Recover the amino acids of this structure.
C-alpha cells in the first residue's frame, strides 16, 4: 500500500533523511524508533507531503505521491491521517468543530460532517466534551480530540508522530489505549513513531530503528530489538532494561498478569510469542485497558 | 503566491483590496474634508464669512478703547452705511473688521479708507479681505495706473483699487475668479521690466542716450515690441510710491534751499536796506522798488509755506511707508497665531521706519516763521536783517543733509531709477521672455548685465490664498489618514496573507530568498493598489500625484512585507494540522487562519461564508448521542 523509495531530504547542509526505503502493507503497523533528531518526524511529514523531499519517491496505492497536485493532493492527505506530537487543535472552534473540520472541508455538508465528528469523538470517549473549547481540555483529552479529528476522515493510513511524548505519564495510557485498539483492528495501516518501547513491541507488526536520517535496522519487532546486533539495537535494549525492567518485574508478576488474563485484546497485545522470546522478567506493561 | 491565487485565493485578496480601498478612501476623504471644513470655519470665525467684511484695520492695543471709538466715529461720520465689528486681538493689535457701504464700493471709496482712519491713535495699517478678488502684487509703481485701467476694463471686474504695491481687482461674482486671474496673468505676462546693470556709473544724459539706443535696437529685432524707459508717477500711492514721493519731497526741500532763493532773499534785504536809506532822500523809483520787495517777501513766504506743506507731506509719506507688507501674509499670520495661540507669541515684523528726523526740520521751520512774524511791524532795517537771517536760516535744510537722506531712501528703493549704474526699461507685447532677454543682451553689449523681471505677480485674494494653504492641510490629513488606515489594513490583513503565503512556500520547499522576494513583490503590489487607491478615492489626483502615491504605497508594502512574520505571522502548528486534514489553502485561510488572527477586514468578509467556528451552526446541531 505504501512504498517509500530512497527518500532524501536536506535542510541546508544537514541531511535529515538519507535514502530511506521501506514498504507498508494494508492494515500493517510499523513502529519507528530512534534518537531525537534522527529524522522520524521529517519522514512522516514527507510522507504526507507537509514538506517536499529533495529526491526519492513515495507510492501510495500504486500512485506516485510527488505527482499529486491540488485536489488530488488534498484527497491523498485525507486518506493519510497525521497525529502530531502536540494536538494543534484550533482554539476558536469547539472540539466537535475541530473534528468536523476535515469532513466539512472535504465537501460534506456541515450536518453530515458534524455527525461523523460526533461518532469519532465517541470512539475516543470524548462525547461529553464535544461542545467544549480546546482550552478547557486536559492534555490527554486534547490529544484524544486530535486523534478523533484524524479518525473522522477514515484514513487508510495513520501517521503517529510521538503522540504521547508531550503528555503527563498518567495521561499517556489513555492515548496509548486508543492507539492499541486501532492497531488491533488491523483495518488500517499505521506508522507509529514512539519512544514507548513496550507499546511498540506490543502493537507493531514491524519495527524500524532510525539514526541520522537512515533506517539502520527494520524487521520483526523482536528481531530488531532482541535479535539484532546493530549498535542502535543494543542501545535500545539497554534503555529498555534500565527504564522498564524493575517496573515490569513488579507489575508483571503481580497485577499485570492478572489483568492481561482478563482482557482478550490485551492478551493479543501482549503477544505470547513475543513474551516468550523476551528475557525473563520482561512483561507487557499491563495498565493498558481496551 | 500565484499557486495560491490559482486555488481561488485571489477572490479573498481582491475583496480585501476593494473593500480597503473603498472604505479607506471614503474614510480618508471624510477626514480630509473635515479638516478643511474645520479650518475654513476657523478662518470665518476670524475674519467673517467670505464677502462679509472687506478690510481689517489694525490698531495697536495699547491705545485702548478710545482709539476704537474714534475709529467708529470716523467711519460713521464718513458714511452711515459702514459696518464694523471688533475682530480678535492678536499680538498687541486690535483688529476691526469693516464692510464698506454699497455706495463706497468703488476705487475711490476703498482707497480713501486709509486717509479716513490713519490718524486714529495707534493705527497700524489695513489688510484688505474683500472677496471675490484677484490681487496683483509687487506691481512696479510706474505700471500701477496701467494695471488699474486694464483691470477696470474687464467686464467681470466691479472695480479695482491700489493698496501699497498691490492692486486689487474686485469681481462681481466668485465664478469669475479663474477667468479674471487668467486674463490678468496674460496681461502681466505681456509686460516685462528690463533691468540693465551697467558696469560703471553713467550720468543721466548718457544713460538716456543708452536707453534710446537699446530701445531702437530692440525695435529693429521685433517690431511688435514696444519698449520705453521706466518713470515713476509720484501721484500713485503704495509703499514704494510713498518712498518715491518722499524722495521727491526731500529733493524739493533741497531745491527750496537753493542758492536762488537765498540770493533773492539777500537781494530783497539789500533793497529793503536801500529803501530804508532812500526814504530819507526822496527817490522816484521807490514805488517800483517797494513793489519788488513786497514781491520778494510774498515769494519768500509762499516758498516757506510750500516748504512747510512739503515737510508735512513728507512726514505723511514716511508714515504711509511704514505700512504695506503683503495682505495675505498678515492674514496667514493672524490665522496661524489664532490656531497656535499656545505655542505662538511671534510678533509680526514691522516695516522699517524712515531715518528722516522730521522734528528737527520742523524746529527749523518754526524758527523761520517766528522771524517772519516779526516782520509785521515793517521796521525795514529789522526786516532786512530778518531776511538775511532767513537766508542764513535756510541752510538748515542743507544740500548735504538732503543728499544723505536721498541716499538712504535710494538704498530703500530697490528699483530706484536714480541709480547711475542702472537702466530700467519696460517692454510691452512680450511673447517670449528668454528671447527678449537674449535680444537685450546683444543690444546692450557685454558690459551690461540684463535682468528681466515680471511686472507683477497675480494671485488670488489673501483669503483664497489662505484657503489654498488649507488645501495643504487637507493634503496632509489625507496622507496621514491614508497612511494610518493602510497600515491598519496591512497589519490586520495583508500580513496574514503574506505570512500564509510564506507557510505555503515552506511546504512546497521553496527557498527562503525566493519566497521573500515573491512576498515583497506581492506586498508592494498590495501597497501600491491600496494606498494609491485610498488616496485617489479620497481626493482624486488633484491633491497628490497619483504616481507618487503608487510609488510610496509600493515601497511601504514591500518593506513591511519583510516584517510580516513579526507583524502578524501565521503559526505553523495549526496551519500544518489543518493542511494535514486535506483542507484547501483558501479554506484554510478563511476557516482557520483569519478567525484565529486579528479581526480585520478579511475577518468580516469571510465570516458569512464560514462553515465552522460559528455559534449558530453548532447550536443547531443535535448529534444524536447523549452528551454528559
Ligand atoms: N524545517 C526545518 N529546518 C531545518 N532543519 C530541520 C527542519 N525540520 C527538521 N530539521 C532538522 O532535521 C533533523 C531531523 O529532525 P526531525 O524533527 O525529523 O527529528 P526527529 O527524529 O523527529 O526528532 P525528535 O525525536 O526530537 O522529534 C533535526 O536535526 C532537525 O534539526
Ligand atoms: Mg519528531
Amino acid at each position: 500500500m505504501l512504498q517509500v523509495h530512497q527518500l532524501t531530504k536536506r535542510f541546508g547542509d544537514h541531511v535529515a533523511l538519507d535514502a530511506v526505503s521501506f514498504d507498508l502493507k494494508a492494515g500493517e503497523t510499523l513502529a519507528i524508533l530512534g534518537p531525537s533528531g534522527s529524522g522520524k518526524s521529517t519522514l512522516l511529514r514527507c510522507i504526507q507531503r507537509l514538506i517536499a523531499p529533495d529526491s526519492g519517491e513515495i507510492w501510495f496505492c500504486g500512485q506516485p505521491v510527488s505527482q499529486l497536485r491540488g485536489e488530488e493532493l488534498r484527497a491523498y492527505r485525507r486518506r493519510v491521517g497525521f497525529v502530531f506530537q502536540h494536538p494543534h487543535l484550533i482554539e476558536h472552534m469547539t472540539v466537535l468543530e475541530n473534528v468536523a473540520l476535515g469532513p466539512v472541508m472535504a465537501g460534506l455538508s456541515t450536518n453530515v460532517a458534524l455527525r461523523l465528528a460526533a461518532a469519532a469523538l465517541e470512539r475516543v470517549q470524548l462525547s461529553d466534551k464535544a461542545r467544549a473549547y480546546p482550552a478547557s481540555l486536559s492534555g490527554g483529552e486534547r490529544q484524544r480530540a486530535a486523534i478523533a479529528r484524524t479518525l473522522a476522515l477514515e484514513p487508510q493510513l495513520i501517521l503517529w508522530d510521538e503522540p504521547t511524548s508531550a503528555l503527563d505519564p498518567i495521561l499517556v495510557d489513555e492515548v496509548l489505549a486508543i492507539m492499541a485498539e486501532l492497531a488491533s483492528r488491523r483495518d488500517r495501516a499505521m506508522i507509529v513513531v514512539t519512544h514507548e518501547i513496550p507499546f511498540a513491541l506490543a502493537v507493531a507488526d514491524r519495527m524500524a530503528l532510525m539514526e541520522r536520517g537512515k533506517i539502520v535496522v527494520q524487521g520483526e519487532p523482536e528481531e530488531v530489538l532482541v535479535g539484532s546486533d546493530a549498535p542502535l539495537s543494543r542501545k535500545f535494549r539497554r534503555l529498555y532494561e534500565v527504564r522498564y525492567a524493575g517496573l515490569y518485574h513488579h507489575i508483571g508478576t503481580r497485577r499485570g498478569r492478572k489483568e492481561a488474563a482478563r482482557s482478550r485484546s490485551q492478551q493479543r497485545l501482549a503477544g505470547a510469542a513475543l513474551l516468550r522470546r523476551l528475557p525473563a522478567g520482561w512483561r507487557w506493561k499491563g495498565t493498558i485497558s481496551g | 503566491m500565484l499557486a495560491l491565487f490559482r486555488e481561488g485565493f485571489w477572490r479573498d485578496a481582491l475583496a480585501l483590496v476593494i473593500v480597503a480601498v473603498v472604505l479607506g478612501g471614503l474614510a480618508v476623504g471624510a477626514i480630509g474634508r473635515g479638516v478643511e471644513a474645520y479650518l475654513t470655519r476657523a478662518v470665518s470665525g476670524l475674519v467673517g464669512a467670505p464677502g462679509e467684511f472687506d478690510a481689517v484695520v489694525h490698531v495697536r492695543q495699547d491705545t485702548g478703547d478710545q482709539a476704537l471709538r474714534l475709529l467708529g466715529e470716523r467711519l460713521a461720520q464718513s458714511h452711515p452705511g459702514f459696518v464694523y465689528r471688533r475682530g480678535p486681538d492678536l499680538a498687541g493689535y486690535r483688529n476691526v473688521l469693516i464692510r464698506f457701504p454699497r455706495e463706497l464700493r468703488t476705487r475711490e471709496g476703498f482707497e480713501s479708507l486709509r486717509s479716513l482712519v490713519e490718524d486714529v491713535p495707534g493705527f497700524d495699517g489695513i489688510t484688505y479681505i474683500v472677496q471675490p478678488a484677484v490681487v496683483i502684487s509687487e506691481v512696479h509703481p510706474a505700471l500701477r495706473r496701467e494695471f488699474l485701467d486694464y483691470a477696470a476694463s474687464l467686464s467681470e471686474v466691479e472695480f479695482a483699487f491700489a493698496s501699497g504695491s498691490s492692486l486689487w481687482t474686485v469681481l462681481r461674482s466668485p465664478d469669475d475668479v479663474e477667468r479674471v486671474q487668467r486674463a490678468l496673468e496674460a496681461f502681466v505676462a505681456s509686460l516685462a521690466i528690463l533691468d540693465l546693470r551697467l558696469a560703471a556709473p553713467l550720468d543721466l544724459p548718457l544713460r538716456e542716450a543708452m536707453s534710446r539706443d537699446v530701445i531702437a535696437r530692440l525695435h529693429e529685432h521685433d517690431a511688435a515690441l514696444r519698449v520705453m524707459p521706466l518713470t515713476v508717477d509720484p501721484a500713485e500711492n503704495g509703499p514704494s510710491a510713498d518712498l518715491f514721493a518722499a524722495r521727491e519731497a526731500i529733493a524739493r526741500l533741497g531745491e527750496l534751499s537753493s542758492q536762488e532763493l537765498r540770493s533773492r532773499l539777500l537781494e530783497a534785504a539789500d533793497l529793503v536796506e536801500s529803501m530804508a536809506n532812500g526814504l530819507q532822500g526822496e527817490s522816484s523809483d521807490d514805488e517800483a522798488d517797494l513793489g519788488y520787495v513786497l514781491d520778494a517777501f510774498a515769494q519768500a513766504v509762499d516758498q516757506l509755506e510750500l516748504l512747510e506743506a512739503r515737510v508735512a507731506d513728507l512726514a505723511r509719506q514716511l508714515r504711509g511707508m511704514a505700512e504695506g507688507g503683503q495682505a495675505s501674509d498678515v492674514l496667514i499670520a493672524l490665522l496661524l497665531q489664532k490656531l497656535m495661540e499656545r505655542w505662538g507669541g511671534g510678533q509680526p515684523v514691522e516695516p522699517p521706519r524712515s531715518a528722516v528726523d522730521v522734528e528737527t526740520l520742523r524746529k527749523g521751520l518754526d524758527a523761520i516763521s517766528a522771524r517772519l512774524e516779526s516782520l509785521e511791524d515793517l521796521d525795514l532795517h529789522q526786516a532786512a536783517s530778518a531776511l538775511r537771517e532767513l537766508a542764513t536760516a535756510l541752510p538748515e535744510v542743507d544740500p548735504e543733509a538732503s543728499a544723505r537722506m536721498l541716499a538712504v531712501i535710494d538704498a530703500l528703493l530697490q528699483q530706484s531709477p536714480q541709480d547711475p549704474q542702472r537702466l530700467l526699461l519696460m517692454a510691452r507685447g512680450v511673447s517670449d521672455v528668454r528671447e527678449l532677454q537674449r535680444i537685450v543682451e546683444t543690444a546692450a553689449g557685454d558690459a551690461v548685465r540684463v535682468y528681466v523681471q515680471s511686472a507683477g505677480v497675480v494671485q488670488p485674494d489673501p483669503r483664497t490664498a489662505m484657503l489654498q494653504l488649507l488645501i495643504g492641510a487637507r493634503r496632509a490629513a489625507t496622507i496621514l489618514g491614508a497612511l494610518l488606515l493602510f497600515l491598519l489594513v496591512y497589519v490586520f490583513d495583508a500580513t496574514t496573507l503574506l505570512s500564509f503565503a510564506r507557510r505555503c512556500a515552506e511546504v512546497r520547499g521553496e527557498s527562503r530568498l525566493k519566497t521573500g522576494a515573491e512576498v515583497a513583490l506581492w506586498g508592494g503590489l498590495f501597497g501600491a493598489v491600496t494606498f494609491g487607491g485610498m488616496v485617489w478615492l479620497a481626493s482624486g489626483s488633484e491633491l497628490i500625484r497619483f504616481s507618487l502615491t503608487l510609488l510610496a504605497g509600493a515601497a511601504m508594502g514591500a518593506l513591511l512585507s519583510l516584517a510580516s512574520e513579526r507583524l502578524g505571522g501565521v503559526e505553523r502548528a495549526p496551519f500544518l494540522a489543518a493542511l494535514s486534514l486535506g483542507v484547501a489553502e483558501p479554506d484554510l485561510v478563511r476557516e482557520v487562519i483569519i478567525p484565529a488572527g486579528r479581526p480585520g477586514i478579511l475577518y468580516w468578509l469571510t465570516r458569512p461564508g464560514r462553515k465552522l467556528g460559528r455559534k449558530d451552526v453548532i447550536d443547531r446541531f443535535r448529534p444524536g448521542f447523549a452528551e454528559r
About this structure: Residues A 40-41, 161-162 surround magnesium ion (ligand 2) (CB under 6 Å). Chain B touches chain A at residues 7, 506-509, 573-574, 576-584, 587, 591-592, 595-596, 611-613, 617-618, 621, 623-628 (CB under 8 Å). The first strand of chain B starts at residue 55 and ends at 60. Residues 2-36+473-610 of chain B form one domain.
